[in-house]
Design brief:
Blueprint lengths: L6 E5 L5 H11 L3 E6 L2 H13 L4 E5 L5 H15 L4 E4 L15 H29 L2 E5 L12 H21 L5 E7 L5 H14 L3 H9 L10 H12 L10 E4 L7
Parallel strand pairs: 1-2, 1-4, 2-3, 4-5, 5-6, 6-7
Helix pairs in contact: 1-2, 1-8, 3-4, 4-5, 6-7
Length: about 260
Amino acid sequence: MVLEDRVIVISGVGPGLGRGLALQCARAGADVVLAARTESRLTEVAEEVTKLGRRAVTVPTDVTDEASCRRLADTALESYGRVDGLVNSAFAIPPLTDLGSVDLDAVRGGFEVGALAALRLTRLLVPALAESGGSVVMINSAVLRHSRRTFGAYKMAKAALLSLAQSLATELGPQGVRVNTVAPGYIWADNLRWYFNHLGRKRGVPAQQIYDEAAATTDLRRLPEPDEVADAVVFLLSPLARAVTGQCLDVNCGEWHH
């Protein structure tokens, strides 16, 4: 119960990692504020949180819109009177196209959701986080660790998010607010299962073979699951990481060493 009675705001709540973040924070004792564009998805996750004995408030949110983010911040404070942690998990993958031909408006969209939205929401919650000695965690990606064709725009946005987290750690540290990053690789959830099934059909092989090939590139010979990535986030939100700020923790079962 390392987050007992704390209040955590989580943006980008979806069926995979977002859900895992909400449930693991609840299992660690936190009440949560859940934000995403799809209200039905928020309702489903909130019901799971309440079954764990914790409270959940849902706020349909467009993280690219200032007024929408302000409504999220205001609702969190009106509902609980405090905010102890913020997890910026919203993201949009830019087109997986070479930089030489990628549409620049699409690249801008990736920056808007992947970096500027995280800055927008963090700034709105800084006063509350400073009052509680809180923590911010940015959800990044293992794209930081490699340079592959067609991933350039995605890497640019995630590199910006990492720089944002490091700079905010320096700016907000004197106020007692910690800012860290978690960088997962593949996450074994529904979206990846669909993708591996798709690859298997294209190649005429079982999806398990696709999984095994991906897992073979990791030290642990498996892919991390949402709860395992979420556990790293819970650690960084908790007092166990009270002297950790400005850091990036890779959670990839040993695919990349950093």
